[in-house]
Amino acid sequence: MINCQNITKSYQTGETSLTVLKDISFEIKKGEFVAIIGPSGSGKSTLMHILGALDKPTAGKYFLNDKDISELSDDDLAEIRSQEIGFVFQSFNLLPRASVLRNVELPLIYDTKTLRSERLTKAENALSAVGLEKERWHHLSNQLSGGQMQRVAIARALINEPNLILADEPTGNLDSKTGDIVLETFKKLNSGKGHTIVLITHEKYVAEHADRIIEIRDGEIISDRSENHDGLKDK
Ligand SMILES: Nc1ncnc2c1ncn2[C@@H]1O[C@H](COP(=O)(O)OP(=O)(O)O)[C@@H](O)[C@H]1O
Ligand SMILES: [Mg+2]
Question: Quick check: keyword Nucleotide-binding in the entry (predicted)?
Answer without folding.
Answer: yes
